[in-house]
Amino acid sequence: MTDRHFDAVIVGAGFAGMYMLHRLRTMGFSARVFEAGSGVGGTWYWNRYPGARCDVESMEYSYQFSDELEQEWKWSERYAAQPEILRYANHVAERFDLRRDIQFDTRVKAAVYDDPTGRWLIELADGAKVTAAYCIMATGCLSSTNTPNFKGLDAFKGPCYHTGRWPHEGVDFTGRRVGIIGTGSSAIQSIPIIAQKAKHLFVFQRTPNYAVPARNAPMDPEFERRFKANYAQLRAKAKQARTGNLYPISEKPALEASEEERRLEYQARWDKGGLGFIGSFADLLFDKAANDTATEFIRSKIREIVHDPEVAKTLSPHSVVGCKRLCIDTGYYETFNRPNVSLVDVSTSPIEKITENGLEANGKEYELDAIVFATGFDAMTGALFRIDIRGIGGQALKAKWSAGPRTYLGLATAGFPNLFTITGPGSPSVLSNMLPSIEQHVDWIADCMGHMRNRGLTRIEATVAAEDAWVAHVNQVAERTLFPSCNSWYLGANIPGKPRVFMPYLGFPTYVQKCNEVVRNGYEGFRLSEK
Ligand code: N01
């Protein structure tokens, strides 16, 4: 193989691309990673906004493919902050000597399947071309940023920032009037930090969001010691849970508990902090009446924390908790008690335009020195559609998925042989702990490539029938839940014109079982051939 022809091209050097490269190299495949950024880390390379921190506990948000790596790395806090996770990614890159096969500062422009040769032709932004037997998309679920097309977007004379593309040198907001648009996880983490520096912070909220305290703290050495001593068992236990996380999910329905029992359980989870709040009762994501009991608890907390009753009311959501990803915070609601923070409700009259001096909303101009867009991402499909991906007969992926993504297991799509997506739509991905989900996908793909090589097979393609059945199943599972009830990015509802289709798959253990069964049944649902 020359440096223009590879067994596999991997797009993206986040946690998915890094491990994929490691696995394939260990198996003797030639692989090249192309990464748009100047370093490894993906999400954690780009999202450097103030307060960026993982909402999965650090002991669980890490690779498990290497015992040595697991044992040697030390996390300093219960929830790791972005700089520490990025240090971890860099440590992994060094430890496994990954950088020599990663080409940084290189965006992939197109990936086209060439029928006659059965190879993928990959075109890079600078016009260079390479070919590969397999094309593996490790492009991330939340990597294509969304900046709403506000009128006058270019008119503002001050700096604009997007949380998902934060300047590497950081931003000093001292003494500045700052406007932040959005109240999702990124905003909820950054607002308390920006408020400490800004002269005044205006928070433009379209939809209030539920946040429960993270209760972040320095890592307890005894907890770490016990965790490391039992890593394998704990990882195995987590894999039995719906989300692949260790927080307990109660088997008891909220509606079968007494009011007092519910209050005690919610309070205990609130005090413990973190995403585990949503596991308080078994039916919270399935039964609206059950969910109402949890939302009322959170609203009562907001009323307790926020001094101004009007502000508390505006901050209080009435949607289903967990329908959008639950946010975990450090001092979010408390921040609205500060005299230098104003909440601007733009739910009934949207932001009208960006002006030279700030922005207009509710018929009023807010004068600002800086604007922060915490407006999220074109999730799950956005990063794939930025690449011109074409399968058999030149069919564009974007056209095939125009009514919503269609995959088999979130791993492959019919008409695109030898193309794999790591944590693609139709897989647990964002509804699970991403690291174990990534490893499961990478291992599946690597094992599949090994299987094909051992049998002299060169081409694998999902069948239309298997894909149709899987898409229907993903939808059926979602319909049994409350997820379709709000305008979340899980449904693509945050992007104007994007089809409203629930994209991730709920249920890590059932999913893994299905993937393993497919293999046991000779890659059922895929067509494997020599050419
Ligand atoms: O983005 P979001 P995010 N006018 O889409 C608002 C992960 N993550 O970057 O709800 C006014 O959640 C929008 O309003 P609305 C995590 O999975 C994890 O915060 O559409 N407002 C919303 O408030 C998360 O879910 C971590 O009405 C507009 C906000 O912008 C995901 O990333 C940390 C608007 C966007 O919220 C995305 O989170 C950070 C408009 N035109 C992120 N358009 C952790 O691990 C959009 N908005 C903790």
Given as residue ranges, the uncertain stretches (5+ residues, pLDDT < 50) are none
Structural class: alpha/beta
Report the radius of gyration as a whole number of Å: 23 Å
Q: Tell me the helix content.
A: 25-40%
Q: List ligands, each type once.
A: 3-acetylpyridine adenine dinucleotide
Most strands sheet = 8 strands, mixed
Mean pLDDT value = 97
Strand content: 15-25%
General shape: globular
What's the quick description here?
The chain is α/β, with parallel strands linked by helices and 531 residues long.
Question: Explain this structure to me?
Answer:
The chain is built from 16 helices and 20 strands. The chain has 531 residues and is an alpha/beta fold. Helix 1 runs parallel beside helix 14, helix 9 packs antiparallel against helix 10 (309-315) and helix 14 (434-454) runs parallel beside helix 16 (508-520). It is globular, with a radius of gyration of 23 Å. The structure holds 3-acetylpyridine adenine dinucleotide (N01). The site of 3-acetylpyridine adenine dinucleotide (N01) has 27 residues, from helix 5.
List keywords for this structure.
alpha/beta; 31% helix; 531 residues; 16 helices; binds 3-acetylpyridine adenine dinucleotide
Produce the secondary structure layout.
Blueprint: E1 5-11, H1 15-26, E2 31-34, H2 43-46, H3 67-72, H4 82-95, E3 102-103, E4 108-114, E5 119-124, E6 129-137, E7 160-162, E8 177-181, H5 185-197, E9 200-205, E10 211-213, H6 221-229, H7 231-238, H8 259-272, H9 288-305, H10 309-315, E11 327-329, H11 332-335, E12 341-345, E13 353-354, E14 358-361, E15 364-367, E16 370-373, H12 382-385, E17 388-390, H13 397-400, E18 419-421, H14 434-454, E19 459-462, H15 464-479, H16 508-520, E20 526-529
Parallel strand pairs: 1-2, 1-6, 2-3, 4-17, 6-18, 7-16, 8-9, 8-16, 9-12, 10-11
Antiparallel strand pairs: 4-5, 5-6, 13-14, 14-15, 19-20
Helix pairs in contact: 1-14, 9-10, 14-16
The protein binds 3-acetylpyridine adenine dinucleotide.
Residues 53-55, 142, 148, 163, 181-187, 189, 206-207, 325, 346, 350-351, 374-377, 430, 489, 494 line the site of 3-acetylpyridine adenine dinucleotide.
